[in-house]
Specification:
Helix content is 73%, strand content 0%. The chain has 7 helices and no strands. The protein starts with 13 loop residues before the first helix and ends in an 8-residue tail after the last helix. It has one domain: Four Helix Bundle (Hemerythrin (Met), subunit A) (Up-down Bundle), CATH 1.20.120.
Length: 253
Amino acid sequence: AMDGAPPPTSPTGLSAYVAVSQLLGLTLLATTGAWLGRYRGGVAWHSPLQFNAHPLCMVLGMVFLQGDALLVYRVFRHEPKRSTKALHALLHGLALVIALVGIIAVFESHRTKGIPDMYSLHSWCGMATFVLYLLQWFLGCGFFLFPGASFSLRGWYKPHHIFFGIALFILSITSCLLGITEMLLFKISDSYSHFVPEGILANTLGVLLVAFGLVVGYVLTREEWKRPPLAEELALSMDFKTLTEGESPGGGS
């Protein structure tokens, strides 16, 4: 921006939707904590309550932090691209670490209680989502964060990266919904149909998960809310393309 120019602003409505997403995210975390604390005894490691770390970690990592990582390019619209990429990768990496803790918790809890692993639809979808998410993170770092990939290769992979990013976010929420249903059927199957408070609270958590996903998805798919390339980024990308592939700056992108 030239000296004296007004500071750049966010498009109309973007800040409001991002604020709503964060309010929903914090509410779903609080609701998860309330469910586990009020009805499931809380969370403690190396105890009969170790399993409860699983839903808490998955909601925090695979939903809330993953959703925020996807919103980085909408929120930080005018910061240097390199910094935005690093924050995007950092949030995804943190989500993976927290999710891994949740996976360890459920496997250790099952082993202690003699419960079989990986037989339910929830476990299949959840583990597939985590493995694909880990692969997506490694590929994203390799293509975009660290030097090495050519301009054309990055251009080819970018739409795939965007698609799988949104798809994995949807799969994460779906896996959480399956997990909530499975847990309720295991714990309160006899009273679930009578609208008991625990069932209502857990159902509310499911609705909040869907609402959070819808708001984040809406922000991500609004074309006019996408992060505009800065002038220096356009110049650098064209120079890089010319130097590495011998194409003229006026060539197609």
